[in-house]
Design a protein that fits this description.
The complex is a heterodimer of chains A (about 450) and B (about 280). Chain A has 20 helices and 16 strands. By secondary structure, chain A is α/β, with parallel strands linked by helices. Chain A folds into 2 domains: about 190 residues, Periplasmic binding protein-like II (D-Maltodextrin-Binding Protein, domain 2), CATH 3.40.190; about 220 residues, D-Maltodextrin-Binding Protein, domain 2 (3-Layer(aba) Sandwich). A 5-stranded mixed β-sheet of chain A has the order 2-1-3-14-4. Chain A has a 4-stranded mixed β-sheet with strand order 6-9-5-10. In chain A, strands 7-8-16 form a 3-stranded mixed β-sheet, with no helix packed on it. In chain A, helix 9 packs across helix 19, helix 10 packs across helix 19 and helix 19 runs antiparallel to helix 20. The longest helix of chain A is centred in the first third of the chain and has 19 residues. The N terminus of chain A is likely disordered. Chain B is mainly alpha-helical. Chain B has one domain: MetI-like fold (Orthogonal Bundle). Chain B contains 15 helices and no strands. The longest helix of chain B is centred in the first third of the chain and has 35 residues. The model of chain B has no long low-confidence stretch (mean pLDDT about 90). The chains are: A alpha/beta (about 450), B mainly alpha (about 280). At the A-B interface, helix 1, helix 3, helix 4, helix 11 and helix 19 of A face helix 2, helix 12, helix 14 and helix 15 of B. Chain B: One of its GO terms (cellular component) is plasma membrane.
């Protein structure tokens, strides 16, 4: 019996261990094939990026005879996309030649040595001078080198439904001046228009960075004086612990969910909720006010699955106000994605040629419009056919002047998760604002290796 | 020389096992002692038992261990095992059509891929789901277990999916019991429960042990089902160890820590195995 027992235990351990280890396969790269990895929408009816890239591929293959472009799309929610890409970038056998990188994570991937500095290429590319300064800085590593070419940016604000507002007796040209104004409008909707979610603020871990950026940071960056970053102190290079502004922002989230002004908590914590909001709830007039990003209309363009050509008649746009209306009076956050060349890419030169083809003035404009993106090229921003291509573009492009960028340093993704945990605590009612804030402080200390400061 | 020719046919298998089984495991063990990250780090360094110390001080890890135990005991020991035995015993007496039909239905759940089963049960339990439609129709109060009692919901899901396996094992075991013994007990005046307790259970003891072991180990590593249904949420109220490990390794990018948690999961599995092996050894 004894040896059998030992053998079974060993087998057991071995079986369990095989289940826990994965194995990936890859293929070598050929000098004439350019592999391009990008994030495919998880909404099957949205094919914006696929269509755009197919067009550029055709143009590119015509211009460079004998070269082939092969797409390696990754269909996954944001956080799983990042993980998949990072694993691919670790080995030359799986690394694509060109990869779509979120500015949220690019600094972290630069630190890991996954990406190649693009400075030698950029120096020889005249179009680079057309990019606005903040966009150029978005993909700059702590070593001062540039690792990615941004394909646009985004800004954020309040979307409100005029149909709901009319029923609630609220103005069609609504523009709140303070947080209290926003909450007051939501309370009015709750009272007068049953069956409608008065105010959607993304929250909790399932929504990932969406909660942090569209939800929490849109609040946090409107507290205090608005002169310095409330998350990261660049003078001391330390992360800032939860102060009064942090707690006020959490209180706002708590109020929304406690007073049932927001969506049902179980819906808000459903990882696919954002797709529902964008594709169903907003078009159906089921949401009064939505704190969200500039890209929403990409899901409503013709051929994108949820056609809604006259959305601008039913939806209005308002700036997200600062807490008490203090200067500059409005808040926006900006992020965006970049095209980057992996350090282990087989064809980096060809990859940069593809970037140039994608980011030519004509193609960049086509992409901004298709993607509801905000231009980072000066020439396109000035182009009247861009500014009038879609309602809302002017509103969101104007926000670029006052928008904030995240402190996207290597620790940021973990700080962001800590923020989401704090939000989730006050959303479900599991934690008070004080408790959530102190939990944030201790997690912050943990994930930044003690690089924290109280302000 | 004879020896060598005997060993030779085994060589390919041994080489494959070493390469694809022992290799990755050894690599895993090594990583568990480093602070390797998926991103945001230029070089990984050796940290000794740091990851394990961190785990034991981590309230979320302890929460995950607790939920894993609840999930395993509820769905594997109580659910799949007992229900499987009950079904097998009932089916032995049932008429052929009933047996075929029940067997077919139960096994369908087992045949379904994990992710498909997860989606089905998500659709069943969610707020606008089938269960609530049924409850409405019966004028009973609605539930939202995916939110209020997620561990119970995923445990139910695992019972639904995994019972067929136990049922098959026990069906085979029950068929092995000689009918003379049961008949003799019946003549002696033993009722159904007494026959079950004094005859059936002792005679299928080995099958019970094997079944418990396989069930438990499988349940301990359930990931897809829970991931599809709740993603470990809301909060971390259904975050069992495999989900916790995934979150640490791939979402927080801390591969080193995640791997250490994987090794601890292995320890939990081994503890269960040791207990079952002991049970198997005792003679009646």
């Amino acid at each position: 019996m004894r040896p059998t027992a030992a053998l079974s235990a060993l087998l057991t351990a071995a079986l369990a261990a095989t289940a826990l280890t994965g194995c990936g396969s890859g293929s070598g790269s050929s000098p004439n094939t350019l592999k391009v990895s990008y994030k495919q929408s998880t909404d099957n009816s949205v094919k914006v990026m696929d269509t755009y890239l197919a067009g550029v591929k055709k143009e590119f293959e015509k211009k460079y005879p004998g070269k082939k472009v092969e797409f390696v799309p990754i269909k996954a929610p944001d956080s799983e996309y990042y993980t998949k890409v990072q694993q691919m970038l670790r080995s030359p056998r799986t690394a694509p030649d060109l990869v779509y990188e979120d500015t949220f994570l690019i600094n972290s991937d630069i630190t890991s040595g996954y990406l190649k500095p693009l400075d030698p290429y950029l120096a020889k590319w005249p179009d680079w001078n057309q990019f606005i300064g903040t966009a150029k800085a978005a993909a700059r590593g702590q070593d001062g080198k540039t690792y990615g070419v941004p394909d646009g940016t985004d800004t954020r604000g309040l979307w409100f439904d005029r149909r709901v507002f009319a029923k609630a007796g609220l103005p069609a040209d609504w523009q709140p001046k303070t947080w209290a104004d926003v909450l007051a409008a939501a309370r009015t909707i709750k009272q007068k228009v049953p069956g409608v979610t008065p105010l959607n603020v993304y929250t909790g871990k399932p929504a990932g960075e969406r909660s942090t950026m569209q939800g929490f940071e849109m609040l946090l960056y409107g507290t205090g004086q608005g002169t310095s970053d409330p998350l990261y102190d660049s003078a001391t290079k330390k992360w800032i612990t939860a102060g009064q502004g942090f707690k006020d922002a959490l209180t706002f989230v708590e109020t929304v969910y406690k007073e049932k002004l927001g969506p049902d908590v179980s819906d808000a914590l459903d990882p696919n909720f954002a797709t529902t909001v964008n594709g169903e709830l907003l078009p159906q007039g089921k949401i009064g006010i939505d704190l969200d990003g500039s890209w929403l209309p990409q899901a409503w363009l013709a051929g994108s699955g949820h056609d809604w050509p006259d959305w601008s008649k039913q939806l209005g746009l308002a700036y997200m106000p600062t807490q008490n209306g203090q200067a500059p009076g409005k808040v926006s956050m900006s992020g965006g994605w970049t095209w980057a060349v992996p350090a282990k890419a087989g064809n980096p030169d060809l990859a940069f040629d593809f970037i140039k083809a994608m980011q030519s003035e004509a193609n960049a404009k086509k992409w901004y419009i298709a993607n509801s993106g905000i231009s980072v090229r000066k020439d396109v921003a000035k182009d009247p056919s861009y500014a009038t291509a879609q309602p809302g573009i002017k509103f969101f492009t104007d926000l670029v002047a006052t928008t904030h960028y995240r402190p996207a340093y290597p620790a940021y993704p973990k700080v962001s998760t800590a923020v989401q945990e704090a939000m989730e605590g006050v959303t479900t009612g599991d934690a008070s604002v004080e408790k959530a804030a102190s939990a944030y402080d201790s997690t912050l200390k943990d994930v930044t290796g003690g690089q924290v400061i109280q302000k | 020389m004879r020896r060598l020719t005997r060993v030779l046919p085994l060589a390919p298998a041994v080489v494959l096992l070493l390469l694809f089984l022992a290799g990755p495991i050894a690599y895993c063990v090594y990583i568990a002692f480093t602070d390797l990250q998926l991103t945001g780090q230029a070089h990984a360094s050796f940290v000794g038992f740091g990851n394990f110390r961190h785990a034991f001080h981590d309230a979320e890890f302890r929460n995950a261990v607790w939920l894993t135990l609840v999930f395993t005991v509820l769905s594997s020991l109580v659910g799949q095992n007992t229900l499987g035995l009950a079904l097998a015993a009932l089916m032995k007496r049932a008429s052929k059509p009933v047996r075929t039909l029940t067997g077919g239905v139960v096994i369908t759940a087992w045949v379904l891929p994990e992710v498909v089963a997860g989606f089905l049960l998500y659709a069943f339990f969610r707020r606008e789901g089938t269960l609530n439609a049924l409850l409405d129709w019966l004028h009973l109060p609605r539930q939202n277990w995916l939110f209020t009692l997620p561990v119970l919901a995923v445990s139910f899901a695992n019972v639904w999916r995994g019972t067929a396996f136990s049922m098959l094992v026990y069906s085979a075991a029950l068929d092995e019991i000689p009918s003379e013994i049961t008949e003799a007990a019946e003549v002696d005046g033993a009722g159904g429960w007494r026959r079950m307790w004094h005859i059936t259970l002792p005679m299928i003891r080995r099958s019970i042990g094997t079944n418990l072991m396989l069930n438990t180990l499988q349940t301990l590593s359930v990931f897809g089902l829970i991931w599809v249904m709740t993603r470990g949420g809301p909060g971390n109220r259904s975050q069992t160890l495999p989900l916790f490990m995934y979150e640490q390794a791939f979402q927080n990018s801390m591969i080193g820590y995640g791997t250490a948690v994987a090794l601890l999961l292995l320890v939990v599995g081994s503890l269960f195995s040791v207990v079952y092996l002991r049970l198997l050894r005792t003679e009646v």
